[in-house]
Specification:
The protein has 178 residues and is of the alpha+beta class. Helices cover 47% and strands 13% of the residues. The protein folds into two domains: 100 residues, Alpha-Beta Plaits (2-Layer Sandwich), CATH 3.30.70; 66 residues, no CATH class.
């Protein structure tokens, strides 16, 4: 396979510790375009790969408060300004009556913002990825750990990367077609 048709090389490991050692070794060797696949989150591997705290909680919080403000403002406008109706001597701005709907709308806006921000930030839906065609990759969701070095890496040279990955004692090393 030519280097142009290659998306990268992927190594399969049997333990999370082996994957963590491989990621650390790849970083030390100067590789920057790395992807790790695991059946469960590995915080130390994520930190080694340069994962940063997610913006999703902040986005959800901001949109939750924005939704609450919009809902409360609309209720105030509708009850006190647009159609003031004094029923039983209650004040036009009866804030206790506005609270339940305000909370519900805040939660709804935060949930919608969370969903949409995850779709955008994670570039979803990603219906196909070249690693899906690698034989045995389906075990990444069961009991195997994978490290892929992308061909976009400036230090990528197929023979050198293959020898480097083989030196890490993986179960297998395979090419990932583009």
């Amino acid at each position: 396979m030519s280097a142009r048709d290659l998306h990268g090389l992927i190594a399969e490991f049997e333990t999370p510790e082996a994957l963590a050692r491989a990621v650390e070794a790849a970083r030390m060797a100067g590789y920057t375009q790395l992807e790790a696949f695991s059946p469960f989150p590995l915080r130390n591997v994520a930190e080694m790969l340069g994962a940063r705290p997610a913006a999703v909680p902040w986005i959800a919080t901001v949109f939750g408060f924005l939704g609450a403000a919009v809902q409360y403002g609309f209720q105030y406008w509708a009850n006190a300004i647009d159609y003031p109706l004094n029923v039983g001597g209650r004040p036009l701005h009866s804030w206790p009556a506005f609270v339940p709907a305000t909370l519900i709308v805040a939660i709804m806006w935060a949930g919608a913002a969370t969903l949409l921000s995850l779709l955008v930030l994670l570039r979803l839906p990603q219906l196909n990825h070249p690693v899906f065609a690698v034989p045995g990759f389906e075990r990444a969701s069961d009991d195997r750990f994978f490290l892929m070095i992308s061909s976009r890496d400036p230090a990528f040279e197929p023979g050198g990367v293959s020898a480097f990955l083989q030196a890490l004692s993986p179960a297998t090393v395979r090419e990932v077609s583009a």
